[in-house]
Amino acid sequence: MSSATLSPAATKADTPISLRAHLRHTGALIRRNLLWIRQDPESMFDAVLFPVVFTLLFVYVFGGSIGQSLGGGQERYVQYVIPGLMAMMGMNMAQGVGTGFNQDFNSGVMDRFRSLPIGRGSVLFAKIAVELMRMLFATAVLMVVAVLVGYDIKHWSGLLASVGLSAVFGSALMWVFLTLGVVMKNAQSVQAMGFLVLMPLQFGSSIFAPPASMPGWLQAFTDYNPLSTLADTARGLMEGGPVAHDLWVTLIWSVGLTAVMAPVAIHKFRTKS
Amino acid sequence: MTRIDDNPVGGNSAVTVRGLVKHYGETKALDGVDLDVREGTVMGVLGPNGAGKTTLVRILSTLITPDAGQATVAGYDVVRQPRQLRRVIGLTGQYASVDEKLPGWENLYLIGRLLDLSRRDARTRADELLERFSLTEAARRPAGTYSGGMRRRLDLAASMIGRPAVLYLDEPTTGLDPRTRNEVWDEVKAMVGEGVTVLLTTQYMEEAEQLASELTVVDRGKVIATGGIEELKARVGGRTLRVRPVDPLELRPLAGMLDDLGITGLAATTVDTETGTLLVPILSDEQLTAVVGAVTARGITISSVTTELPSLDEVFLSLTGHRAGTPQDVTPADDRQEVAV
């Protein structure tokens, strides 16, 4: 057998993909993910039901008694819990990213994408972009329900800033769940894993009730739980009050998670065999 | 490995593979594979399940990286130039890789955009290919509602969007019914007519015979033989005698009688009830004479006797010692079935 007959082209370096091409690919994939929603509108159910159910549940079931401990009643609790629920939107949408992506991966379409000359992150960026849109939609639903149950929007600018911060933190979490979605074998295990991680974070936080009545060790946990700091920042921004500490902790978490998990997710995506 | 084709490789090599190795733990999916596919030809890679065919295709489409060895496609190295390489290949996987939630048209448009076509070109190309693969009427329906054959056609269309120089067809008809299989074959033949180079993996002898001009037989990660299909058959040396008794009821007694005669070709004698013929593998003219003599002596009237080159099934059997599609050795009893495939 003759030795390798490689053409001269094989010795040249690989060509990089331009930023414009990256954007074009991401755009095309965003369109795909939006078409999925159009094809399957039921996939938006969670974005509608989640804010409605949680708002009604917490306001009408726990609202009275927790409100009393806040020195008011149900009306007082509405003002407390709505910024907290807003902080939860990002997390809840993020949880679904991993599961959906995992299913996508097992369908064979991903092999086709990975055999195309597109940027390594395009598929993931597109997924995150669409999930953020879903999150914004869920937040809009939340605010409508909030106003219906008597929430008083005091600072519109604070509201918008809170939405922005939730999106930043939400996208950081989405990278974590995308990584799980790529690495884990099936959608069920992704879901179980997400539940195990998020359950303590969600309830060991200031989202639903003020941590003041919690034991000391739990308060220490809630102080640096990003969901607490995100909820407290949103409260400060929407109700008025100090936000500096909470804002910093939230931003550090967001940047830290993204800086670590985004490259991991992209790498795992490309090298998955 | 035995190289049958003694002629130096003519034409430019579209795919060149040298000493390719891929291990998964203890399993050697590829154990030093060499392969040359000339431009404009169809190379069939034939082997049973687990022979390493899909691993080979996945390496050549840059989905996984080899542990050792080299491979170039259209001059681009699979490891060092994956992006350029992806631009010149088309991939149709073992499991139709179309997005079931998207309409057929959107599937093709998406891929066009990902291949850097302008919006307009991507639109035109999607329309063109839907027309070409007779899917225009189903263009707006989600691919999930398509029949198996339509899905494969959409998959083929998707892999043709970038006008690839090299097309990989990884078991393109696995799981399809015979009619749909013929449909897919016709499409592949048409594409080959347009000059695309094809690397086809298959477990079906018939498929390789239909589509491929050259054949590489792989088994357990190794190349066992390579060459033109006719050359391979000639190398195996045997022929198959096809005997048709006038009365089909004579088929079984005839088979039993020939077994008693002790004529051993490359494989056992088989009965093909569909055509009402008996297939007797033979190795020499003496055996041919003996068979005809025995039939005559027994007084069985026959309507025709023809000799054929051996089937690819027999080629595989003689090269690997086991039948294609069955990784383990088969007992003689298993060989006495209808003609496989």
> What characterizes the major β-sheet of chain A?
none
Largest sheet of chain B: 7 strands, mixed
Q: Whole-number radius of gyration of chain B? A: 23 Å
What is the structural class of chain B? Answer: alpha/beta
Number of continuous helical runs of chain A: 10
Strand order of the largest sheet of chain B: 1-11-10-4-9-8-7
Helix and strand string of chain A, N-terminal first?
HHHHHHHHHH
Oligomer: heterodimer
CA distance, first residue to last residue of chain B: 26 Å
Helix/strand order of chain B: EEEEHEEHEHHHEHEHEEHEHEEHEHH
Description:
The complex is a heterodimer of chains A (273) and B (341). Chain A has 273 residues and is mainly alpha-helical. Chain A is built from ten helices and no strands. Mean pLDDT of chain A is 87; it is low at 1-8. With 341 residues, chain B is of the alpha/beta class. Helix content of chain B is 35%, strand content 26%. Chain B contains twelve helices and 15 strands. Chain B has helices at residues 53-60, 82-87, 104-114, 119-132, 148-160, 178-193, 205-211, 229-236, 251-261, 285-297, 312-320, 332-335, and strands at 2-3, 13-24, 27-38, 42-46, 68-73, 76-77, 89-92, 166-170, 197-202, 214-219, 222-228, 239-245, 270-272, 277-282, 302-308. Chain B is globular. Chains A and B meet through helix 1 and helix 4 of A and strand 2, strand 6, helix 2 and helix 3 of B.
